[in-house]
């Protein structure tokens, strides 16, 4: 099972993770840890009991239904992987850092601040450009494809032989998708999917290998163009968030490790704290470009990332968002030969909802909206559950790249076939003049001057289809068309999400929701045709909007940011209240059955994700029970050999080490005096900063913060550093390099209190001390992420080396 | 000086603050503290030096210009008052609390969560109702007034004797304002002004006495109606934020101490942590009702309040905001005989900016907008500087309530006179049909079918004037009218802000800015009439909007939240980028000269306000230098007499006490084992929780968390608790009641690190310990708020008992 999971995990190719030293586990938290805690108290053993019972039940039911499956696989989401490292969002304020900060004048800080703004402006600009590039490429390619297929269909409509058209369509789609799937599956698996779960994890503080590299960006952009052009049921909005994040991580470092270019700028930003801030800005810029929602972008970043509210940072994020929307808007207006016309922000916009007076809603419609929210929640939960099982299936059977490519091609061909069949058998003809500006009206078997309305929804960029569902006048769609479309699209979208292509789920969700929403809008007046109020329900576009929101909310379960994104996309604050109520209902109903789609995929990867608050019933857990112990500590002046041995020990792969001073009487445990990171030790070893050498070579250059920054973020693994036998006997003085003031908590601190400190300050290691400041344990991300509220109360996930 | 400051301070009447025990200082931080620190290092003495130089300079210049002034008065804003207490945003997780939490089931937590939502809904609903009430009352009263005055003027226009009209107008205005000023000055001075600085302070963690009481709300609502009806240059939007906050603080506690009613609900919320969360929601609901900007409201609350991002809280705040806008909107639509027409959210809305196609802007206009932002920043700084000197003057000379009432009446009369003179001498006649729906068109000396355009701006609710400036077609206003109006209004608004009336500064700022913005919009085409592009500048409404944003930004210097508020008020995201750029420019330019208006008033009150980040150049300060020491500690089991004596000591009026256990060998300082608050000790003393009594009366009821909640928030002063001589010899066991896990930092922690911990967790007391966990100092709000970045680098404010 370990192997299988590794194959399809985000961190992807198994050969990679160990060789680069990136996939090394953080703690000596073997599975025994989880069990050893059961002894420490009556109430705690309850956890063990519950999860054990749970395990038994599921295994039993598994054995009944599916013999021969590996048993562990169903518990994939009940595990917490140890292979993910954390990011250091807490500055290591060692002497070098403090010296640098103290040397810096006020002017220096001003310059830093200005360069932060410049970087954010650049991030916004580049993200906007990328969005623009994707949009234009997709439009060109799909335009070409639709033109060819339409011509072909029209050629064969009269004479028969439409099956040739079908084959042409399917082959075209599969070809596009094949390219997209090959680059994702073979070159950069992390670029698959929407990238939102990965960015959520990154901002949460989990190091997902290769998630913000240049190569990922290139594959992502090319992949999303291919998959959208290939007619898959996907959107290009989600990937923009990932793209923005990669741009941010790249620009802010002032160098590209992949291209081996160092521009010697922004060196101050080469640490996790600063980089995270910029990645937040990049993600926001991505949202902003995707939906034309700069405020929504800021709120998305805050919702996912912010632990500590920083006014200047928020303002900078907003700046990046604004620039991004503006850039996209401006270049698209130039491309559309209408420069300066800036009314189309975002890759998708919902069109203006205030032109027609029927856009208002009445008080008595609110219960209807809430009901639609509930439907959205139910359908969303169904979608997520189906996708969950599909993902489990994929993890088990479709983990080889060539199989992944073949599955993607199959989906593309099936999508084309289904579309074709639906167009063929639908006789929903509409007069041509109803809809202006239909790009590819397909006549098929309709009379002259009419077109096939089913074909409209398929022969269109999905963004345009959403707009049509919102804004086309009543009567544009036949109810049956909408019903069949909803069902087909629902299953196609569900099948598509999780393929090894780069693609998002926003647009499909909106489209499904808009379709059934409009269907409800059409059906309602007929239901209540007896009373005279049926007439005001005549605008099904409003119900399409509500349905779209409900479906999207039911699938992704974002809250505040999604409401604001939708408000901004409709450009009308009047819909704020209904949208909020709908999203809330969808979330509440959906959460009752199944988690959000992104959370499911995060859990399936066993990522140690720290939520914003501790589970409510966790007050009876204290740091003593939560922490990992015993802790491996170093002395302030430590023998090199000891350090090398400890770092090389693959079974206890720690990343942070408390530094202690022993008492005069040498009692254990010793007093805490600092904290040092693996990455710092590696730089020290590499530069051979040994006490003996410092004495012998007086002219030796003192190690500076720059040396640490140059090594960031790809610190070499310990195996690549050669330490001779003589050097092993040298001593290393850690005083100058350790963080002398790590945050600590006493052993009696309750879990919510530990959680709050950890999350609010973005910590990686929290030292637990006794009443004499002696180290007794260490709390890391995994120790907190382990506890979650299941259906039977507080549950504890197990740690695994997968 | 101390007396003077006290008289006009927010916490107001001098007789009050000591009697109720609310104004007691927090720490033994006498002014010597500030000086004693100068010895600890070379670099630190720099602070003392710089601020001394500064002081000398100012005194010298003072002596030149104004002899006989009390010298200290100019340093009012260089002091930090000790009279303000802090709020406890960090839960005291003592045994009682933990027991309660552990007893609570998961269902209990769900119920709590649901009641939080209910409370937020109530807050939104009531805030919306209050906004609605204010709006309708103001409309009725001003309508009546304008009708009377207009009739009168028309009666006298032909026959002469307009001076009678003037007197009538002035008397009417003064009468309204007199009522408004009397209730503020005599009954509840804290209700004066907009209340935004007070709410900012409250959310920051400073306890401003009586700021969230029912009486304050009543006076605020009545006061704002009077001052707006009295024709003062004020808005009713700012006070809504304060009103919302009071509603929230009241509703969430489930009782009214003023009315002596306890509904026995929401008892769980009776502590500062929960109350602050609800007050954030209330403030957001206020913003939302005022501007129809629910998202802006959320961001306002976050910008001012949030230290720690809590997803559920933000979502609740958003809910309250939405309900508030919706309620206001709905009831106003009913009042306007158009129920269900929900397109007018907020007390002010800017009207729709997307009807006319000219609402778009071009790339080359952006530099123009930035220039206008700079003008706004300059004018804003001028406004703030003038208001600053005026406030200093008021603090010194106009501190008696009757004088305050007279000043307010004078301003009202002058406002009426100036308006009248301007209408009288203006001959800006406009044909009547240009503007539809003018409520009170005044013909005066214009021809039939025309009206006086100057009168329009004055004879109108200011909100309507702003809308007119934005939307009236080109040619509605004469440039001279706008110029004169700008200047007059600027000085009137400046004079008005800070009067003892309840009123806001948003609308006047918007009006001033809209006037000069529109003026620029009108002038620009004439300047560039040679080229053909002049024609596209024909829409001066766009420039009015930009000008309004620039002026408002230049005065209040809010950033993200203001941008979003303005975007929401215009209902058009297209203007996002220009608005953001304008507000940024206005802030940068303005900050160069003078602080924001609210910050000025906060500083003038010497409030210890903790900003979101430490000053950038403060890395060389450590906890050792910042902390207050020595610290008064208690033993775990302490003699009652010792406790009573310490609490009664008015010179060292501590509020938090570390609890320590002495070593076996009794060495000092002793080891930290907890932290207990003055309020907790007082409840313990009141209930006589003594070890001896517990032994004697076995049946005695155990003290519960409920007893602490019942006493919250008005804990009795120590003087009111009688302790007999026998009881003084009893012992008190603090183990159960102290917080056993207070946050601590080592002495070497740098100031930014201390700051971050303090601010992120909303602490009140941060214990500084040595390497053996022995208490060496205590960091409180004043120790951090003291450091700020002045023009000469890092400066240290002095603490004073004012």
TrEMBL record, chains A, B:
Residue ranges constituting the CBS domain according to the UniProt record: 738-796
Coiled coil: none
Entry-linked InterPro entries: CBS_dom, CBS_dom_sf, CIC-7, Cl-channel/antiporter, Cl-channel_core, ClC
SUPFAM superfamilies xref list: CBS-domain pair, Clc chloride channel
Membrane topology, as annotated: Multi-pass membrane protein
Gene3D superfamilies in the record: CBS-domain, Clc chloride channel
Keywords for this protein: CBS domain, Chloride, Ion transport, Membrane, Repeat, Transmembrane, Transmembrane helix, Transport
A Pfam family reported for this protein in Swiss-Prot or TrEMBL: CBS
Segments crossing the lipid bilayer: 117-138, 158-187, 217-235, 278-301, 313-335, 366-390, 402-425, 477-498, 505-524, 544-567
Region (Disordered): 1-43
GO cellular component: lysosomal membrane
Molecular function GO terms recorded: chloride channel activity; chloride:proton antiporter activity
Ranges of biased composition (kind: Polar residues): 1-35
Family of this protein: Belongs to the chloride channel (TC 2.A.49) family.
PANTHER family: CHLORIDE CHANNEL PROTEIN CLC FAMILY MEMBER (PTHR11689), H(+)_CL(-) EXCHANGE TRANSPORTER 7 (PTHR11689:SF136)
Protein name: Chloride channel protein
Origin species: Gadus morhua (Atlantic cod)
């Amino acid at each position: 099972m370990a192997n299988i999971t590794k194959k399809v995990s985000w961190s992807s190719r198994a050969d990679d993770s160990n060789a680069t030293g990136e996939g090394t586990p953080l703690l000596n938290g073997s599975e025994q840890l989880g069990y050893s805690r059961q002894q420490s108290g009556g109430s705690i053993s309850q956890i063990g009991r519950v999860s054990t019972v749970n395990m038994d039940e599921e295994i039993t039911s598994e054995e009944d239904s599916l013999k021969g499956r590996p048993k562990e696989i169903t518990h994939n989401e009940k595990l917490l992987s140890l292979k993910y490292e954390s990011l250091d969002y807490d500055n290591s304020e060692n002497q070098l850092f403090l010296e640098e900060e103290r040397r810096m004048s006020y002017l220096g800080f001003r310059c830093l601040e200005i360069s932060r703004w410049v970087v954010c402006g650049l991030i916004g600009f580049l993200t906007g450009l990328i969005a623009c590039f994707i949009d234009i490429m997709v439009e060109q390619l799909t335009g070409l494809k639709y033109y060819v297929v339409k011509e072909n269909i029209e050629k064969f409509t009269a004479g028969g032989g439409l099956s040739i058209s079908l084959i042409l369509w399917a082959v075209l789609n599969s070809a596009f998708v094949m390219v997209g799937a090959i680059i994702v599956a073979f070159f950069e698996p992390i670029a698959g999917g929407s990238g939102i779960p990965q960015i959520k994890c990154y901002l949460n503080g989990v190091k997902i290998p290769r998630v913000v590299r240049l190569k990922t960006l290139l594959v992502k952009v090319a992949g999303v163009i291919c998959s959208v052009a290939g007619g898959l049921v996907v959107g290009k909005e989600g990937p923009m968030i990932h793209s923005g994040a990669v741009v941010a991580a790249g620009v802010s470092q002032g160098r590209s490790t992949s291209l081996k270019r160092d521009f010697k700028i922004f060196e101050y930003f080469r640490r996790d704290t600063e980089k995270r801030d910029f990645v937040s800005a990049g993600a926001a810029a991505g949202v902003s470009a995707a939906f034309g929602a700069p405020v929504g972008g800021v709120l998305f970043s805050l919702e996912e990332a912010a632990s500590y509210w920083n006014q200047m940072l928020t303002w900078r994020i907003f700046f990046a968002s604004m620039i991004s929307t503006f850039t996209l808007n401006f270049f698209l207006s130039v491309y559309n030969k209408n420069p300066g016309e800036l009314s189309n922000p975002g890759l998708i916009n919902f069109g203006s909802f205030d032109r027609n007076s029927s856009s208002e809603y009445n008080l008595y419609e609110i219960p209807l909206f809430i009901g639609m929210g509930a439907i959205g929640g139910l359908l969303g939960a169904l979608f997520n559950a189906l996708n969950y099982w599909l993902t489990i299936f994929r993890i088990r059977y479709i983990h080889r790249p060539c199989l992944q490519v073949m599955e993607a091609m199959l989906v593309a061909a099936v999508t084309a076939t289904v579309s074709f069949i639906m167009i063929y058998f639908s006789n929903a003809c509409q007069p041509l003049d109803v809809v202006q500006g239909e790009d590819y009206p397909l006549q098929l078997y309709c009379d002259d001057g009419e077109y096939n309305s089913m074909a409209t929804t398929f022969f269109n960029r999905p963004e345009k289809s959403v707009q049509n569902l919102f804004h086309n006048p009543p009567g544009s769609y036949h109810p049956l068309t909408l019903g069949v479309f909803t069902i087909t699209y629902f299953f196609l979208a569900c099948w598509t999400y999780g393929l090894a292509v780069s693609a998002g789920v926003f647009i499909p969700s909106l489209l499904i929701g808009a379709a059934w929403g409009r269907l409800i809008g059409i059906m309602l007046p007929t239901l209540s045709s007896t009373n005279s109020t049926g007439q005001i329900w005549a605008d099904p576009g409003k119900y399409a909007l509500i349905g779209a929101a409900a479906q999207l909310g039911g699938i992704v379960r974002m809250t505040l940011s999604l409401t604001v994104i939708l408000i901004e996309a409709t450009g009308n604050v009047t819909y704020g209240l209904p949208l909020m109520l709908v999203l809330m209902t969808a979330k509440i109903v959906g959460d009752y059955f199944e988690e959000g789609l992104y959370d499911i995929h995060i859990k399936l990867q066993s990522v140690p994700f720290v939520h914003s608050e501790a589970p409510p019933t966790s007050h009876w857990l204290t740091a003593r029970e939560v922490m990992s112990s015993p802790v491996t500590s170093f002395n302030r002046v430590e023998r090199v050999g000891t350090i090398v041995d400890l770092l090389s020990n693959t079974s206890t792969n720690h990343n942070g080490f408390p530094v202690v001073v022993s008492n005069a009487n040498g009692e254990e445990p010793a007093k805490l005096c600092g904290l040092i990171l693996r990455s710092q030790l590696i730089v020290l070893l590499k530069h051979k900063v040994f006490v003996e050498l410092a004495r012998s070579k007086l002219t030796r250059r003192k190690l500076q913060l720059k040396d640490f920054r140059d090594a960031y973020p790809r610190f070499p693994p310990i195996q690549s550093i050669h330490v001779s036998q003589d050097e092993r006997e040298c001593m290393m003085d850690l005083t100058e390099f350790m963080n002398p003031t790590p945050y600590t908590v006493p052993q009696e601190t309750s879990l919510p209190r530990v959680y709050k400190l950890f999350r609010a300050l973005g910590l990686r290691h929290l030292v637990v001390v006794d009443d004499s400041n002696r180290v007794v344990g260490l709390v890391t991300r995994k120790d907190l992420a382990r506890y979650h509220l299941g259906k039977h109360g507080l549950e504890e996930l197990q740690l695994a080396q997968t």
